[in-house]
Amino acid sequence: MLHIVNGDHVAETLKKVVDKGDILVWREVYPDGPNFTNPAEPANREIRAQYLEQAMGIPTAEFTRNSEIQEKQLADFAQYDEVVLWFEHDLFDQTMLCYLLHWFAQHPLGDTKLSLLCIGSFPGIELFRGLGQLHAEQMATLSGTWQIVGSEQLALGSALWEAYVSSDPNKLSQLLNGDTSALPFAQAAFQLHLARFPSVHNGLGIVEQITLEHVQNDDYTPYILFQKVGDKLHELGMGDLQYWHVLSKLSQGTQPLLHIEGLESFPHFQGTPPSFHNCTISLTELGRQVLESKVDWIALYGIDTWLGGVHVLGQSVPWRWDTEANAIVNCRKDK
């Protein structure tokens, strides 16, 4: 049996629970960086590796090596009688799950069973952030409760992945307006992904908006702010390196929205500067104007980021998020 899980901590706990079988930790950050239908294609992998090294400090060589190892183990799935996918409700996991369902949809299973365990809550945990919160005894209660993946899950997962990596976010929006019950957590997770696009009101995505709302009346240290924003947006499943990349864009440049007192450098894949823990984050005057929708951050500062398969670039980006309609809209002037 092969168990595919979303992180090393989950894998270490699962080792105490399962008596036999192998565990594959799927190491990816699909909510960040350029995405492709086939990210394992060498040219696509190289593009992702370069982005993740620049954005989060993940060494290109290490990312490439890990990707090659996990893809090889995935390709050898036929040696197992069953493959079990262990995932949760948030965008981090749902993108991972949909990629794997898309992959399996392209590869005949033969005699191998494909099963799924995917949860969004756990008894006794008020705010469930993920499987990493569970200790071995709690994890053991989930063992064997997985369900066989059927054609509906494979088809929906594949369609969601293809829509997610498309350069047209409206494809994902249209898909989410249909029946997504085969994957119960997909609708909320991918809807929140669309809310990461710049708002029609001030150019802020949902993560930037919630960040500025938290600091408008109080100063925070980075880790406290990360916890507050992460709790509010727990359906993103956002990791700390992902969030530091957001903070860096908000606080650097000639027209920052945040001021970080005592900042020497941001944490990266290799570690965290000790001084970072004691930094304090406050709103600049420009940040307050943007938060009040008096200034459009993108029109003023421009943007260069990837959301799924969409390269959001420039000062007049076509795709925006309408917070009132709760929908993605095309704001091109010729529309």
CATH architecture of the largest domain: 3-Layer(aba) Sandwich
Average of per-residue pLDDT values? 95
Number of helices: 13
SSE run: EHEHHEHEHEHHHHHHEEHHEEEE
CATH topology of the largest domain: Dna Topoisomerase Vi A Subunit, Chain: A, domain 2
Instruction: Please bin the fraction of helical residues.
Output: 40-55%
| Strand order across the largest sheet | 2-1-3-4-5
How much is the radius of gyration in Å? 20 Å
Overall 3D shape: globular
Uncertain runs are none
Pfam families: DUF1835
Domain DUF1835: 2-107
Protein name: DUF1835 domain-containing protein
Organism: Paenibacillus arenosi
Defining traits:
335 residues, alpha/beta, Dna Topoisomerase Vi A Subunit, Chain: A, domain 2, Arc Repressor Mutant, subunit A, 2 domains, 5-stranded mixed sheet, two-stranded antiparallel sheet, 11 strands, 40% helix, DUF1835 domain-containing protein
Short description:
This protein has 335 residues and is an alpha/beta fold. It is built from 13 helices and 11 strands.
Topology (SSEs and partners):
Blueprint: E1 2-5, H1 8-15, E2 22-25, H2 42-56, H3 60-75, E3 82-88, H4 91-105, E4 113-119, H5 136-140, E5 147-148, H6 151-164, H7 169-176, H8 186-194, H9 206-215, H10 222-232, H11 240-251, E6 258-261, E7 280-283, H12 285-291, H13 297-301, E8 303-307, E9 310-314, E10 319-322, E11 327-330
Parallel strand pairs: 1-2, 1-3, 3-4
Antiparallel strand pairs: 4-5, 6-7, 8-9, 10-11
Protein name: DUF1835 domain-containing protein
InterPro entries: DUF1835
Pfam families: DUF1835
